[in-house]
Amino acid sequence: MPSFKEIPYYQFLNKPVGKEVRLENLVVHGTIPEEIRGSHYRAVPDPMFDPRFGDDTLLSDDGMVSRLDISDDGVNFEIKYVQTARHQAEEAAGKALFGRYRNPYTDLPDVEGVDRTVSNTTPVFHAGKLLMTKEDGLPYQVDPITLDTIGRYDFDGAIRSETMTAHVRIDPASQKIYFYGYEADGLASNTVSYCVADANGKLISEQFFENKYCAMMHDFLISENYAVIPTFPTKADSERLKAGGAHWAHDQEDDSWIGLIPRDGSVDDMRWYKGPKGVHSFHMMNAFEHDGAVHMDVHMFASNAFEFVREAGGIHIPQQQVGGAFERWTMDLAEGVEEVRITPMGPPGDMPRIADADMGLPYVNGWYLTVNPEGPPPLLGGPVGALFNMIMQINAQAGQVVGARQMPPAHAISELVHIPSSKEGHMGYLMAIVDQQVGDDEYLHETWILDANNINADPLARIEIPHRLRPQVHGWWVSQDKLEACQ
Ligand code: V55
Ligand code: FE
């Protein structure tokens, strides 16, 4: 069994922290605006035990839930493991029991039938519940105040899908939550569930459709009338899994597809549009309808952004050479149109963020992160090995990048959350964890709060987090009002 110390992926910022932490009365530099009261939740993968295999573990690390709580009484920080069945089984055994990423055939026989999901991708807050999601299973519900795990969440027994992805979309007007699960009825299956729950979290619709192939469908979008379902040719295969191989292999030669489902209608009315061959995207910024078309703004890559997924498909492209762009994909609703139309909007990047109030609607402001090829070298860490060091600001109406903030040398920035402002004409606030390398294996961490009206100004506030942190995946902002309403 390889140890963390021998696996390149677990070095630098990716070194496992391996424990729960609570820190109180954090030091704040500057002033936290009075309208920022609430909690910043983050999903942080952090493995408790050395993995049984060394090469594909980056997405299988144990999920932890992190909360930065900002109130009139001060700022506190806490991080706890999500008590998944998998985490509990391994903790009881004192070692890793599960095998390769999404391949149960490689698990030790002791854990046959135990839920393999690690709840490490997005903390989703809806209808007063905090759900820790991972696309290979159902979420785990966590108490938003204590961070204690309540249990596996199956919508009061209503959901039939075996999976729910980590990217959901909440309609700002109705507060309905739209989501889906792929491999919905088993490993490497083509069956996808499409689900809607109402503002109270009650599942009101679950339908199933067959996809073009079994694809890694990480994120999707809603527009006013459609669910926008992207399919890119990163594929699973049962035979490969049975032989103990990789769950995913990218296929550079197959088509990508966008499916439009009438958002509150039937999957039988789904319409498909063909996109370019071989491309892949993890995250989409927003979709909206305009001039008889559905537009989606998306972070596209020329291949899968994960090296282990490219390599499994025999694609040997060094990480820095994958290539991509921030693009607008347009699906014309006129009869007879069968292909997407693509317009470039900006340099490649990822981790898009918009205001919750803009979801699915024509919008102006959006932000994302990138590694500036002309900037200082990025910090090492995160799932692809290099961390982001630049914030990009877009104007979606103009269809272009309108601003950028370069992080200082030896700094990295994690995914932003957006916090709305009640002030007229104010674009709100952006908040994220910032890492700084101060020695070979020494780091400082702060939460920065930026004024979205001027992302290049000094942060309004910097909150010191005096403990080693591992890079997060996604985050979620929940206002104090919403937290109090669920007590
Ligand atoms: C991603 C992350 C995942 C996963 C699949 O960022 C894709 C992409 C942290 O888990 O399981
Ligand atoms: Fe994601």
Structure in words:
Strands 2, 28, 29, 30, 31 and 32 form a six-stranded antiparallel β-sheet that branches. The radius of gyration is 21 Å and the shape is globular. The protein has four helices and 33 strands. Helices cover 5% and strands 39% of the residues. With 487 residues, the chain is mostly beta strands. The termini are far apart. 4-hydroxy-3-methoxybenzaldehyde (V55) binds next to loops. Residues 121, 166-167, 218-219, 282-283, 474 line the site of fe (iii) ion (FE).
- Globally, the shape reads globular
Query: What is the terminal separation in angstroms?
Result: 45 Å
- Chemical compounds bound to the protein: 4-hydroxy-3-methoxybenzaldehyde, fe (iii) ion
β content, as a range? Answer: 35-45%
The helix tally amounts to 4
Task: Give the class from helix and strand content and strand pairing.
Answer: mainly beta
Write down the overall mean pLDDT: 97
Helical content class: under 10%
Largest sheet: 6 strands, antiparallel
> What is the CA-atom radius of gyration, in angstroms?
21 Å
Number of strands: 33
Unreliable runs? none
